[in-house]
Write a structure and sequence with these properties.
By secondary structure, this protein is an all-alpha fold. It has 13 helices and no strands. Helix content is 68%, strand content 0%. Helix 1 packs across helix 11.
């Protein structure tokens, strides 16, 4: 097996993670580029990523940020259709893994409703236990479970994107419960240090944005 390497652009996320607290403006500047980064990633997507859905990546991200949280708040669970769309978002935002959607679609809608309902209830008390519950779904490992919890509890849980993981924990990169807990703790601590406007979810977005800007700038 080949050794891990930082994802393209991740060195910029590492630099942001290590920035002096007095330079907090650099975090805000990175976060402000998020929408631009969505456009850059959209233009660079492979045919396979593009064909995942009739919706665009930008539309998927808007839905994840603005509509899915409200749906979950009302429903207290997710449906299979909602899970599929969130996983499509994940596959477009990061590494494309062609077998993942097939695994996700093996889940029965009733099972998705039951497990996500239980997972959300558990996560309110212990995010690690919530992660364990969500990982009972086919095709859902810690990274995908973190994407779900980051929608449900953005004030507590960051999405385990490759770029953010590279910045916060370094290599080797692994997606396990212990890594999730270590990542969550570090990102939560960083959010607390940066101030009240910051959450773990926003920290991850800023790190991802810094990485994407560097990646596409170097490819020009």
């Amino acid at each position: 097996m080949a050794p891990d390497k930082l994802r393209p652009g991740s060195a910029a996320a590492v630099a942001l993670w290590n920035v002096n607290k007095t330079k907090i403006v650099e975090w805000s500047d990175a976060l402000d580029t998020y929408d631009n980064c969505l456009e850059l990633v959209t233009k660079a997507q492979s045919k396979a990523q593009f064909n995942l859905s009739k919706q665009t990546f930008v539309e998927d991200d808007y839905w994840r940020e603005n509509e899915l949280p409200k749906l979950i708040e009302t429903q207290k669970h997710m449906t299979l259709k909602q899970l599929e769309r969130l996983v499509i978002w994940k596959l477009r935002r990061g590494m494309f893994r062609p077998t993942l959607m097939g695994l996700i679609r093996r889940n029965d809608n009733k099972v998705v409703i039951e497990i996500t309902k239980s997972g959300f209830a558990a996560a309110r008390l212990d995010t690690g236990k919530g992660l364990d519950t969500l990982c009972k779904l086919q095709g859902v490992g810690p990274a995908t479970a973190s994407a779900i919890l980051a929608v449900y509890l953005p004030s507590e849980v960051p999405f385990m994107s490759d770029e953010a993981m590279d910045a916060v924990l370094g290599l080797p990169r692994s997606y396990t419960k212990p890594q999730f807990l270590q990542f969550q703790k570090a990102v939560s601590n960083k959010a607390n240090k940066l101030g009240a406007m910051w959450s773990p979810a926003l920290i991850e977005k800023a790190l991802w944005s810094a990485s994407m800007l560097s990646k596409f700038k170097s490819s020009d």
